């Protein structure tokens, strides 16, 4: 059961999270052509929602960095960015590939990360108007295909422990990275506990 009845909206959090992940990836892009994304999505309405979005975006970055070396994903991202025709169909194929074995918190994180990487590719290809399209396509895909699943699985608040665990295994980490992961995991649990406590008051 979702926590939407307590002033926290899984839909708002999802939209803001997609925007945050794309903007974070675009910060690494060296270009003046990055379009503003602000009016395109619903903004979070509370400090609790903002904390959830910030924490989740950090976890998605960790998971995304792990997928970064996957050649199949990189080829799919490059294929969408290089072909200006039927970008939506290619984006849908990439989305379907990410979720072909079912929806999980980790695969949702990977999909959002892929959207951010696609945005960077479009900026690098001098197609900045496509960044807004990627945002809208990802938000639309999220609402149509993922939001129901997220609500059925307790809302974004229930994603913290699974995303923290998903980012931990099979990674060869240096000590500083392990410490960072432990901090994210602990912060996620603390944030989840805080929000649950706040909602029960």
The SSE string, one letter per element, is: HHHHHHHH
CATH superfamily (homologous) name: Blc2-like
Number of structural domains: 1
What is the CATH class designation?
A: Mainly Alpha
What is the structural class? mainly alpha
- Taking all residues together, what is the mean pLDDT? 76
Helix content: over 70%
N→C terminal distance:
18 Å
How much of the polypeptide forms β-strand, as a percent range?
Answer: under 5%
Q: Quickly count the helices.
A: 8
Which fold name is given in CATH as the topology? Apoptosis Regulator Bcl-x
What does the overall shape look like?
globular
CATH level-two architecture: Orthogonal Bundle
Topology, number of strands: 0
Which regions are unreliable across 5 or more consecutive residues at pLDDT < 50? none
Compute the CA-based radius of gyration. Answer: 17 Å
Main sheet attributes: strand count, strand direction, barrel closure: none
Give an overview of the whole structure.
- Helix 1 packs across helix 2 (47-67).
- The chain has helices spanning 10-27, 47-67, 71-82, 87-98, 105-124, 129-152, 159-167, 175-200.
- By secondary structure, it is mainly alpha-helical.
- The protein has a single domain (4-200), classed as Blc2-like (Apoptosis Regulator Bcl-x).
- Helix content is 71%, strand content 0%.
- It has eight helices and no strands.
Summarize the structure.
The protein contains eight helices and no strands.
Structural descriptors:
201 residues, mainly alpha, Apoptosis Regulator Bcl-x, globular
